[in-house]
Specification:
Number of strands: 0
Protein name: 18911_t:CDS:1
Number of domains: 1
Order of helices and strands: HHH
Radius of gyration: 48 Å
Keywords: Coiled coil
Organism: Racocetra fulgida
Strand content: under 5%
Distance between the termini: 78 Å
Largest sheet: none
Structural class: mainly alpha
Shape: rod-shaped
Oligomer: single chain
Length: 155
C-alpha cells in the first residue's frame, strides 16, 4: 500500500512558494557574502552545508508527513475492520441464540407430535383388539396371534 498525494494545484503552489522563499533568502545571503568581499571560505562552506541541510530537512519533513498520513489511514482502516468484526460478532451471537431457541421449539413440537402419534397408535390398537375380541372365535385367534408373535420374538 503506497500513499499517493492528491494532485491539486494548491499543494504544488505552496511547495513552490516555500522553495522560492528559501532560494531567495539563500541567494541574498550568498550575495551578501560576495559583496562584502570577505571571501570567507568558512562562510561559503556554511552556506553550502545550509543548502544541503535544507534539502535533507525538507525531504525528511515530507517523508514524515507521508508516513504520518499512511499510519493514520492504516489506523482508520484497522478501526473500520474492528467495528465491522464487532458487528458481525453481535450478529452471529444473535443468530446462535435464535437457533438455540428454534431448536428447543422444534424439539417440543416433535415431542408433542410423537406423543400424539403414540396416543393414536395405542387407540387404534385398542380398537383393533376390541374388534378381534368381539368377533366370534376372536379371543382364540387373538391368543394364537400373541403366541405366534412371542415365538417370533424369542427366535
Amino acid at each position: 500500500f503506497i500513499f499517493v498525494p492528491r494532485l491539486n494545484m494548491e499543494n504544488y503552489e505552496n511547495q513552490i512558494c516555500k522553495l522560492m522563499k528559501f532560494a531567495k533568502g539563500y541567494e541574498n545571503e550568498y550575495k551578501d557574502v560576495l559583496k562584502h568581499e570577505y571571501n570567507n571560505k568558512q562562510k561559503i562552506k556554511e552556506l553550502n552545508y545550509k543548502l544541503l541541510d535544507h534539502n535533507i530537512t525538507q525531504m525528511h519533513e515530507i517523508l514524515k508527513e507521508k508516513e504520518s498520513k499512511r499510519f493514520e489511514l492504516a489506523h482508520n482502516l484497522t478501526k473500520e475492520t474492528e467495528n465491522l468484526l464487532q458487528e458481525k460478532k453481535k450478529y452471529t451471537e444473535n443468530a446462535l441464540e435464535e437457533f438455540k431457541e428454534g431448536i428447543e421449539d422444534w424439539l417440543k413440537e416433535r415431542k408433542h407430535a410423537a406423543q400424539k402419534e403414540l396416543f393414536l397408535a395405542i387407540h387404534e390398537l385398542s380398537l383393533s383388539i376390541g374388534k378381534a375380541v368381539i368377533q366370534p372365535g376372536g379371543v382364540l385367534n387373538f391368543v394364537d396371534t400373541v403366541k405366534k408373535i412371542s415365538k417370533s420374538v424369542q427366535d
